[in-house]
Amino acid sequence: MNLGFTYNTMLVLAGVALLGGAAGVIGCFAVLRRRSLTGDALAHAALPGLCLSYFIVGERNRHSLLLGAFLSGIAGVGAISALRRWTRLKEDAAIAIVLSVFFGLGIVLLSVISRIPGGPRAGLESFILGKTAGMTRDDLGLITILALGTLAIVVLFYKEFKLITFDLEFAGAQGWPARSLDFLLQMLLVVAVIVGLPAVGVVLIAALLVIPGAAARFWTQRLGTLLFLSALFGVFAGVTGAWVSANLERVPTGPLVIVFASLVFLISLVFGSRRGLLGQWLQQRTYRRRFEQERLLAMLLERETGMIWINEIPRPFGWTKRRFRRTMDQGVKERLLEYRDGGVILSHEGTARAALVVAMRRSWRELLQTHPQEAPALLRLDLSSADAMDFPLP
Amino acid sequence: MLLAQAITESYRAFWTIAVGATCAVSCALLGCYLLLRRMSLLGDAVSHGILPGIALSVLLTGRLSGPLLLLGAMLFGFLTAYLAQALHSGAGVTEDASLGVVFTSFFAIGVILLTRFLYHVDLDPQCIFFGMLDVVALRTTIWFGFEVPEVIPTQLLALVLVLGFLLLFWKEVKLAAFDPALAAAMGLRPGLIYFLLIALVAGSTVSAFEAVGSILVLAMLIVPPATAVLLTDRLAPMLLWSAGLALSSTIFAYVLASPAWFASNTAGMMAVVSGLQLVLAIFLAPRHGIIARGIRHFRLALRIAVEEILASLYRSEEGAPTALHQELRDHGIPAWISRLALLRVRSTNLVARSASGNLQLTAAGRQRAEEIIRAHRLWEAYLDKNFDLPADHLHAPASRMEHFIGPQMQGELARQLDSPERDPHGRSIPPVETTTPSQQKPENEYQ
């Protein structure tokens, strides 16, 4: 396979990787502040600014276009908070309104521009989808500045950002300039969106901002680790996406980067060490098996014969034969049960454990009966903490 | 020749407006529920998330229309909503992030499918993203013997489905919009309503996207309902307003986008016009508009200032030292309001200037002042009796409350306190004069 590391590919790889990292870090804060979709709205809101600056400056001057997009992005952020402050509309409606109305204005302006002789022709499509393959050294320079600037600001204001991310009101009450810091975070978001727009387009810059942060949440609760992982995921998605699309025909880079980011998200969703689906399932299985074992022990203790036939499935349990056998085998393995005459009985250890289980259940029942109003809180305690509560045995 | 041109022109105008209006109205009606359930961004997510469905059905049939397209888009629209919900409730991802993850991923997959496999299909991406309302009216087909635009049958179907849904499930939908938990408790199955709603949003989105594009659909879904919610507090008028605003935005947009004005994209202009309608409503709405609220604030401030002046003069008659302007400033009343209030009390003959040049209460003014002082001191007595507050903490809350305690509330307070004659500071509480009807004071003007 041809690795295809031409100069241009290297440029694109570096650009997308840096963009992914920077967006990962900034997006992480956005996700934590529940502002994931603000990036999406901002990206759409940049279009009228692009068009207006084209009107005013007249020629295709990159920097003035970026400035226009930046200003209209800020206007978008301002409009969202103005709508929330001055009307009875909620945040979601405000975001949706700003996104769609600004974008509509942009399209109107664009359709007017496109009739100017010598105006841009394919501007719209590259605005939506981005033109990653057409990345220039100028673009790379801007992205590098963005990435380094973001890194510097986040390192400088790490403690402050941490505080306002988790409790804005508390930060304000402690005397931090919480609103200004929040504004700084939003400005970082605007800058990231504007710089990323030419590279990956409107929808996909929104994705780069949301997906790595959301994926990193499945691995850790610590902000530092979260930011690092999020940046790492962003870089990984950028590099793999750019590399694969360089080797495939007719596959646009931007969307491919997002697909790899989603892949990282899926892997995190399943295998994540915190709230990952696999971990959740395993934990539930452990609880369920322990619960089943305790039921079996309690039943054996309470039976007059003190034994259960191997082929008998106790009626109230509603288990399958397989499940019943597994619970029995496991009990024997843990030396809580013993096989005797085609059935199982409690071992010495098992009797003690069963007595404890029965006593604990009785205590629980009493506790729930005497304090019914505490039932929801009590039921939320897991089994291990119930163990630790050390109930008096009857 | 000129006549023929005029006929062609008005024909085009009619069908463009008809196409725009049918999708705008059905989106605006559905959007009311999205807005009330705070699911506005679901509209955004669904309108992007349907792209793989569109790509797959184009891949299968080779054309950008037909029932399979509608089905594919609805499937993916529903999948977007379902997956986002599952991520939120099953894996604890915050609502906004789960929407963002799902719809951007779907959108990316859709774009890849379109560019990788469908480069040979004559598919203008502009059409998908921004709509071609301007040319839609010209692509016609024969339907029941009439020549109508190709998209009209699908759109009418969407509109009929939306209207049918609303009329059939009016009660259920109403309850589900405002209180899903209560709806569930009453056995009205808000889950089913939600399911139908999402399916309809996806259906309307896809039937509209050819005309207005997948992004501007959001403007149609959310902006007219957001405007309507500022204009009314009831659901049925909200739906009517929303539909009416959608219709008017289509008509104005067509005019503004015509060559005589800006000669621009009509779909984009629809979003802009609905945005302008929203801005107008933000300022001019009868109850929730900024101007109406400003007037209400102004009148309240003026009334409070007038009452403060009267109360202060009353206290000075009792012998308390007064510094009227200082007091007004302490209440946070701006100087210009105070000046207006002084003019007001003079002109309404509540206060007159005495021979020595001091302000004095007239008989009418004294009566009004007594009411305020009575409210103030009753409230102090009430606070003193029911709350463990030090004596110097009673005045401030009472000065705020005195403006909002009307005759009825005063009666209630007096009854609870056994008609006290003195307040906690030992000053006398003016009794109610039963002979003259007390001036009407709104009980709860300001919420």
Description of the structure:
The complex is a heterodimer of chains A (394) and B (447). Chain A has 17 helices and three strands. The radius of gyration of chain A is 30 Å and the shape is elongated. The termini of chain A are far apart. Chain A is 74% helix and 3% strand. Chain A is mainly alpha-helical and 394 residues long. In chain A, helix 3 runs antiparallel to helix 4, helix 9 crosses helix 10 and helix 10 crosses helix 11. In chain A, strands 1-3-2 form a three-stranded antiparallel β-sheet. Chain A folds into two domains: 269 residues, ABC transporter involved in vitamin B12 uptake, BtuC (Orthogonal Bundle); 105 residues, Winged helix-like DNA-binding domain superfamily/Winged helix DNA-binding domain (Arc Repressor Mutant, subunit A, Orthogonal Bundle), CATH 1.10.10. In chain A, strand 2 and strand 3 form a beta hairpin. Chain B is mainly α and 447 residues long. Chain B has two domains: 285 residues, ABC transporter involved in vitamin B12 uptake, BtuC (Orthogonal Bundle); 152 residues, Winged helix-like DNA-binding domain superfamily/Winged helix DNA-binding domain (Arc Repressor Mutant, subunit A, Orthogonal Bundle), CATH 1.10.10. In chain B, 72% of the residues lie in helices and 3% in strands. In chain B, the strands form two sheets. In chain B, strands 1-2 form a two-stranded antiparallel sheet. The radius of gyration of chain B is 32 Å and the shape is elongated. The C terminus of chain B is likely disordered. Chains A and B meet through helix 4, helix 5, helix 10 and helix 12 of A and helix 2, helix 4, helix 5, helix 6 and helix 11 of B.
Short description, anyone?
With 394 residues, chain A is mainly α.
